Amino acid sequence: MSSQDIPEENLPAEQDTEHGAVAVADEENPFADPGLPPHEHRVQDIDERAAKRSERTVAMLFTVSMLATLGFIASYVTIPNDRSIYVFPIGHLSAMNFALGLTLGVALFAIGAGAVHWARTLMSDVEVADERHPIEAPPEVKAKVLADFQEGAKESQLGRRTLIRNTMFGALALVPLSGLFLLRDLGPLPGTKLRHTMWRKGRLIVNMNTNQPMRPSDVAVGSLTFAKPEGLEETNEDFQKEIAKAALMLVRLQPENIKDKKELEWSHEGIVAYSKICTHVGCPISLYEQQTHHVLCPCHQSTFDLSDGARVIFGPAGHALPQLRIGVNADGYLEALGDFEEPVGPAFWERG
DSSP characters for 114-138? Predict the structure, then answer.
């Protein structure tokens, strides 16, 4: 908008002259201060209609920020964490991560863009030169700072532009909710899913290597066999999550070598079934010593005695391996007689 389009009564009465003052160099002062160029008024300074347009633009940006923050929260609550989408030309991405990044980026960008537009179009842009002063602040300087602050608050038009003020406060109040919702997973929201696995009464025990149901004759004395629940296949979408809880190891001991009464009752013909997941940090146990009946976790050397309830005899593990009660069905195949009675793997704080 040019000055010809602005009503005459809105034009400034006189041009700023002090900004155009230029000192003249002479022999005593060859590097005179050239001064500041004449101040040019912006359209918003002299046309209230233009100022209103800028105000609405800033308010719109703050409103977009609020909507984006609400979109962030809605995305976090409603989008499954295992869902993926295709974004050209990047490829397949996590739908939740994409939505969270997009909405949070828009929320922060809109606040910043609104603040910049507010400062460039509505706040005072008059350049003020001030002399340097000592670090200590005498009373007159403090009074001047307070006066400048009050003048700046007045020139920001925060009190006058209520639409900007209210939408800015709304945007700034909602953005922290993004961080608050990110703390959600630090609470007990997993519920009871850490306490349960795929093992159920009557579910067959399947050999991990052959993918075939197991008979008692398949487990030799002194051997270590790894197994999984029937129906859990590597092609399943949730295979990794389920096998991390349901992985099983079978060892056949002589019944007279089993010291723990409960372990003997839950075994079948000396075959005992224990969780393969170490109770320290969840590493898979893979080493077995036939003579001592000890199993060793290769990560931090936690050692468990499978002839005595899989109790910890060495290492940092905090408790024994959970045992699975097993039996044989009518077809002669090994099956589970229920789920583990306690959570598998490392302890967690809400574990009761």
Answer: HHHHHHHHTS-----------SS--
- For the stretch 281-328, pLDDT in tens is 999 998 999 889 999 999 999 999 999 999 999 999 989 999 999 999
Q: What is the pTM of this model?
A: 0.51
**Residue 303: in which H helix or E strand, if any?**
strand 303-305
Please compute, for residue 201, the number of CA atoms within 13 A of its CA located in the half-sphere on the CB side.
Answer: 1
Q: Which residue bears the tokens 């800028």?
A: 54
- What pairs with residue 59 in β-bridges? none
Angle between helix 162-174 and 48-78 (nearest 10): 20
Amino acid at 159: G
Q: Distance between CA atoms of 325 and 345, rounded to whole angstroms?
A: 17
Contacts of residue 266, defined as CB under 8 A and 6 or more positions apart, other chains included, come to 272, 273, 323, 324, 325, 326, 337
Any residues with CB less than 8 A from the CB of 66 and at least 6 apart, and which?
107, 167, 170, 171, 174
